[in-house]
Amino acid sequence: MRFAGNHILLFAHPIPGVSCGWADSNWDLIFNEGNQTLSAHRDRIIQALDSLRIELPSWGFANTGTRFGKFLQLEAAATIEEKFADAAQVNALTGATPTLALHVAWDLPGDLRDANKILDLAAQTGVRAGSINPNLFESQSYKFGSICNPDPGIRRMAIDHLLESVAIAKALRSRDISVWLADGSNYPGTQSIRRRIEWMAEALAEVHASLGDDQRLLVEYKPFEPAFYHTDLADWGMALLIARQAGPKACVLVDTGHHYHGQNIEQIVAWLLREKMLGGFHFNDRRYADDDLTLGSIDPYQVFRIFHELLSDSTSMASTAFMIDQSHNLKGKLEAMVQTVCTAQELFAKAAVVDRERLATLQDECRLVEAEECLREGFWFDVRPVVQEWRSSRGLPADPLAALRASGYVERIRSERRERNVCSVATYA
Ligand code: PSV
Ligand code: MN
Q1: Which of 164, 175, 181, 359 is the most buried (most CB within 10 A)?
Q2: Residue 370: pLDDT over 90
C-alpha cells in the first residue's frame, strides 16, 4: 500500500477470521476498487503538481507594513540582489517558483538601464524575471490619478511609464505586464467617472500597441483602496471591457483579495475562462479587505473551488499566470512564502483529485448531494503523502518548511542584513 494515514483505514482488508457477513470476494472487490481510485488520484496529483508554477513577488521579501506602520524584520531584503537570492531559496525548496515578479519603481529605479543587471541576477540565481509591474501609485503627481488624471501632462507621464515598463519586459523577455491602477476618487461629484473611462481606454490602447508579439497586458481590478468613493477599474466586468477594447493581447488579472465580501470568485473565474480573458491571479487570502494574508489561511475551500474551475477547462493552465501577491508584516517572509507555495500545491492537488467526468453526470442528473460530495471528495482527500512523494521523486525536500528551518538560511541573512535593517524604516519596499 503506497498511501499512508487515513487511506489505509478507508480501504483496509478485514481481519482474517472475523466474519461480518460478507464473502471475501466482496472485500477483494472493494479493496481493488479502492486501490484503483487511489492510483487514479495519485496520477492526477502528480500530473497537476508538474504543471503548477507559481510566481513570487519581489516585494514579498522586503519590509512592508500596514497603513499604521511596519514591523521590521532583520532578514528582510532591501536590494534586488537580496530579493533574487531569497526567491532562489524558495525555488530550491519547492521546485515550483522559477520566476520573480518585479515592481519597476522598487526593483528597477533606473528603468531600462537596470535590465542587464536583472538578466545577470537571473543567470546567477536560476530565477527568471516574471511579470513586470509598473508603478502608477507612488508619485506625488498621481494624487488625483495616473492614466485617469484630468491633467493631460500627468496622463502622459503615466503612459510613458507604462511604455517604459513594456520595454523593460521586452529586454527581460517577460511575457506579462501587469497593470494595477490606484486611480479613483473619494467623494461623489469630484471627478467625471465617464471622462476617466475614456482616458483610461485611450492610454491602454496606446500601451497595447507597443506590446511585442508574445507579450500580454494583464489588467487588475480592485473595488476599493486607496480610493473610497469610486475606483476607475473596480471589478472584473470593467476590467474585461477595458481589456477587450485595448486589444487581443490584454486580459484580466484576478487578485483574490480584491472582491467584496460574499462575491463568488470561482464564478468570475468561470466567466473569464469562457471569454478566454483570464490572464492570471494574484493569490492571497483575506478576512476583511485586501488583507494580504497567506493563501488558504482563512478560506481554503474557496481556493480549492477556484482551482477546480481552472482544471475544468483544459486550456486554462497554458494561459494562466499564477502569482502570489502577499506582503507579510508579522510572519517571517521566507517562511510565509514557502508556506504559501505548499498550500497552493496542496489545494491544487485536491482539485486535481475531483472526478470531473462523474461530476458532470451527477450534475446532469441533478443528483445534488452526490454531486456536492463528489466535489468535496477532492477537498477532503489527504493529498500530503502524494505531494511528499512527488517532491522526493523530483529531488526536493519532502517538507520544505522543515528544510528551510534546517538550512540556517534565515539566520544567515538575518546576521548579514541586520545592521542595515535595524536603521532602515523609510522605504516601503
Ligand atoms: C494592489 O493592492 C496590488 O494588489 C497590486 O497588485 C499591486 O501591484 C500590489 O498590490 C502591490 O503590493
Ligand atoms: Mn495584486
Answers
A1: 181
A2: yes
Distance from the alpha carbon of residue 408 to the mean position of ligand 2, in angstroms = 31
Q: What are 322's strand-pairing partners?
A: 54, 281
pTM of the model: 0.92
Structural domain for 241, as ranges: 52-353+399-422
Query: Domain with 346 in it: what CATH number?
Result: 3.20.20.150
Asked if residue 339 lies in contact with residue 294, where contact means CB atoms within 8 angstroms, the answer is: yes
Q: Any idea what the Cα angle at residue 15 is, between residues 13 and 21, rounded to 5°?
A: 90
Distance CA 54, CA 345 (A): 9
- When pLDDT is cut at 50, 70 and 90, the band that residue 168 belongs to is very high
Closest CA to ligand 1's atom 1: 180
Tens-digit pLDDT profile for residues 39-67: 999 999 999 999 999 999 999 999 988 87
Residue 348 forms part of a structural domain: yes
Structurally, how many domains does the chain consist of?
Answer: 1
Residue at 383 is within a domain? no
Which residues have CB under 6 Å of ligand 1?
Answer: 59, 133, 180, 220, 222, 255, 282, 290, 325, 327
Helix (H) or strand (E) holding 302: helix 300-311
Strand ranges (E), 208-304: 216-220, 230-231, 250-255, 278-283
For 299-310, what is each residue's pLDDT tens digit? 999 999 999 999
| Burial (CB count <10 Å: 0-12, 13-18, 19+), residue 419 | exposed
Alpha carbon distance 264, 262 (integer Å) = 6
